[in-house]
Amino acid sequence: MIKLLLIFVPSLVLSWDYKFSGTDWPGLCSTGTKQTPINIDVNSTVRVFSNEPEYSWIHFQMTENPLQANQDAGGYKFVGTFGEMNMMQGNLPVLSTNLINFHFHSPSENFINGQQFDLEMHIVMQDKDQRYNFVVFGVLFRVENNAYNSFINKVIESRENHVIITLAEAFNTLQIKDYLQFSGSLTTPPCTENVFWMLDTKIRTISPEQLRFFRSLWSEKMDYAGGNGNNRLLQPVNDRTITHFIGASISLGYIGMLVILFMS
């Protein structure tokens, strides 16, 4: 199924745009019941703490790649072999994937507690056991005046030059202990469902100049919502369960974490 989807996606790319932020996309994009992006109300999530048997944590293994960015109908994308991810329960892997691309949306597609962010990176993966059509790990960024993100700087440089890059540079640690998980879809046509979504609760920072680069990719271009971005509008959560996996260091100060991460 995955191979067939990848074959048909290039032809679909030519037939859609962001003029109406995805509200005019046909097929499953308009009829699906588990579509992405969504707004996550953290207070309504199912919380799983690290001392519980259902708790799962994420381990990435990244590889270096010489590459150059591609700009297509969806936005700003990198395609290649970027490494692997294992979701672990204790020492037992319960989900193993290959990383096949990463790309950017600005402003963000997913919201947390009604808040939209300045930039969102999606790391797209294939499930080695093919239980899910795709697996996606989302990373959110917000602008701060004195911020500088060296990973994003390399991403920007790669538009004009071949750059050696590893996704590991986007992370302080490759062991992710605190994240949100839900069932969703691709956020672009054909809006395939049965996508296993994870959203990092760590909000990263970028500079105003770095954000300006992404906004310039579609500034004044009507295909990008009149130059306003490549984000699909929020979709109904419906009856989906959103799980918040909470690491040990976070669980000790859970209320304080909510204030710092989601209310600032």
Automatic annotation (TrEMBL):
The alphabetized UniProt keywords are: Lyase, Membrane, Metal-binding, Signal, Transmembrane, Transmembrane helix, Zinc
Gene Ontology MF, one: carbonate dehydratase activity
Catalysed conversion reaction: hydrogencarbonate + H(+) = CO2 + H2O
EC number(s) on record? 4.2.1.1
Report the domain of life of the source organism. Answer: Eukaryota
Q: Does the keyword Signal apply?
A: yes
Boundaries of every Alpha-carbonic anhydrase domain copy = 14-246
Q: Which cofactor does it need?
A: Zn(2+)
Does the UniProt entry include the keyword Disulfide bond?
no
A family per Pfam: Carb_anhydrase
- Function field: Reversible hydration of carbon dioxide.
> Protein name, please?
Carbonic anhydrase
Lineage of source species: Eukaryota, Sar, Alveolata, Ciliophora, Postciliodesmatophora
